Amino acid sequence: MTGPALPYEEQGASWRTLLIVPVGCVAGILTEAFLPGPVHWLGWAIAVVVVSLVLAWQIAAARAHVSVFCDAQVLRQGAETISIGSIAEVLPAAAGHEEPDWWAARALGELPTVPRRRNGIGLRLSDGSTVQAWARDDEALRGVLRGLVG
């Protein structure tokens, strides 16, 4: 059996998402070209710039606050980093409809709860406190953490 795949990493959001904006605007321009009346070039140019800026801001925020990185030394969740040595135990996943005690624990990172479309992973720290790590692929991160913590 091989060890955990290190480093484990989730980016939070992809810059490729920005490609949606020009593709959507080209589709709008083509639609206008086949309809009677003019194509609103200035409107489409403004739309591309404004929507691209807003989307780029959202992507940058997701990459800063919803990214995950784990290697043999650290676990980083958004802007919060903890040492792997400070993790005493990876708590069991929820079974069935039961809510484990760690679901009420503080989520790692600077967000108040586990981010949307992410699942929590209960961790008991060496100081006795309980926190929630989180990831899109929580089973993969749980496996990596179990391999590192033992």
Description:
By secondary structure, the chain is an alpha+beta fold. The chain folds into 2 domains: 8-65; 72-149, no CATH class. It has 3 helices and 8 strands. The protein has helices at residues 20-34, 41-65, 138-149; strands at 8-10, 68-70, 74-77, 80-83, 87-90, 106-107, 119-125, 130-135. Strands 1-2-3-4 form a 4-stranded antiparallel β-sheet, covered by helices on one side. The protein is elongated.
Order of helices and strands: EHHEEEEEEEH
Low-confidence stretches: none
Q: What portion of residues belong to β-strands? A: 15-25%
DSSP summary: helix tally: 3
Give the averaged pLDDT, no decimals.
91
Q: Strand order across the biggest sheet? A: 1-2-3-4
The number of distinct structural domains comes to 2
Topology:
Layout: E1 8-10, H1 20-34, H2 41-65, E2 68-70, E3 74-77, E4 80-83, E5 87-90, E6 106-107, E7 119-125, E8 130-135, H3 138-149
Parallel strand pairs: 6-8
Antiparallel strand pairs: 1-2, 2-3, 3-4, 5-7, 7-8
Main attributes?
22% strand, 2 domains, elongated, 3 helices, four-stranded mixed β-sheet, four-stranded antiparallel β-sheet, 150 residues, alpha+beta, single chain
